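Below sits the subject:
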Amino acid sequence: MNFHVTGLNHTTAPVEVRERLAFAPERLADAVAGLRNAEGLLETMVLSTCNRVEITATADDACDARDRIETFLSVYHNVERDWLRPYLYHFTGTDAIRHLFRVAASLDSMVVGEPQILGQLKSAYETARTAGTLSSTLESILTSAFRVAKRVRTETEIGQSAVSVSYAAVELARQIFGSLDHRKVLLIGAGKMSELAARHLARAGASDITVTNRSPAKASSMAEIFNARTVPYESFHTALNNSDVVITSSGAPHFVLTCESMRPVVHARKGRPMFLIDIAVPRNIEPSVNSLDGIFLYDIDDMQKVVESNMLVRQAEAEEAERIISEEVARMMQRLQQRGAAPLIVSLQQQLEATRLAEMERMRARLAPLTPEQRELIDVLTRGILNKIAHGPISELRRLAASPDGADGLEALRRAFRLDGNDTK
C-alpha cells in the first residue's frame, strides 16, 4: 500500500485555475466517494479551500495513483489533462506524509502560521469519514497530522504574532489598553478591512462595537454579524467622545477626522487615552491628530512595519516547526513500517507451519505406528526446529520495521521467502 497527495495551491496555480478546480462544499462527499471508486484507490480525502485543492489517497502497489487522480480531476471538472497537469504536484510515501504534516501545521500556507487551514483539514477529514472513504492507514496519518499541528502550536510561537494589517491594529490596541473587555470601539467604514478588524476585535474580547458607513445598509449588515450598534455617518462624531478605539477604513477621498475636529473630543474625554487606527488608503485621519494629548494614532504604514517584523519572527519559528515535523515524519514512517511487517511475520510463520505439517503427513506412511506420546514428541521436536529457523528472519523483519530506511529490506525479505503479505511500502 502506498500513500499519495496530488494537488495544487497558491504557489503552483493562479486564482482562476484554483477556482475552476474547487469542489463545492455540498458536493464534496459525493466527490470523495466517486474518487474511491477509481480502480486501485483504497482510501480517499479531498481538501478544497480558496488557496488549495488536494486529493489524499492510499492505493495498492500496482495502482498508478497519480494517473487515477489526474483522470478524476479532469473528468470531474471537465478540463483537459494537458491543461491541468502543469499546475499539479504529486507526493508519495515519506514526501506525502511530510507535505500533509506541513499543511496541517500551516507551514505551506500563504500566511505561515495562520490557523484556518487546520480547521479546513479537519472538516475534510470528517467529510471523508462520514462518506466511509477512510480506514486504518489514512485515518492514522491524518490524526497524526492533527497532533503534529497541535505540537507545533504548543512548542513554537508561529501563530502568536500578527501578520495582517487588521490583526496588527487590534494587537496594538490590546497592548495599549491591556484588555479590550468593556472598551468601546467605533468602526468608520464597513468594508473588508473593517470586517476583518471587527473579527479580531471580537476574538480579543471587545463586545461594545459601533459601526458607521456612508451606506446605512452596509453598516447594518456588518453590525448584525457582530451584534454591534450603528450610528448615522453624518453624525458619527457624536460617538467619538465615548470611543476608546477608533478604526477607520472609509473610502472617503479626504480626512474624516482632523486635528480641529478632535480637539473637543480630547477635552470631553478628560485625559482618558484614545487609540486611533487609520488603515484607509488614502488616509482618513489627519496626521497632526497624533500631537494631541492622550491620542495614539497609527496609520497603515505603521501597521505594515509591525506585520513585516512579525513575519520575520514567524519565519524563525517556522525553522523550529520544520524540525518538529521531520521528527514526526520519521516516527510516522516507523509506525507504518512496523504495521507493514506484521503481515509478513504472520505469513512467514504460516508458510513454515504449513511446510512442517505437510512433511509430517508425507512421512507418516513410512513410519511404524506411533503412540500418542511419540507423535507429541515429534510434533514438539519439529516445531522447535522451525522456531529456531524462523527466529533470525523474524528478528530481522522487526529490526527493519523499526528502521527509518527499512522499507527496501522488508521488500527484499518478502521476495526472498515469497510471502503474500506485501503492505510494506
Strands lie at 2-9, 41-48, 52-59, 89-92, 184-188, 208-212, 229-230, 245-248, 274-278, 295-299. The chain has a mean pLDDT of 86. The two ends are 6 Å apart (CA to CA).
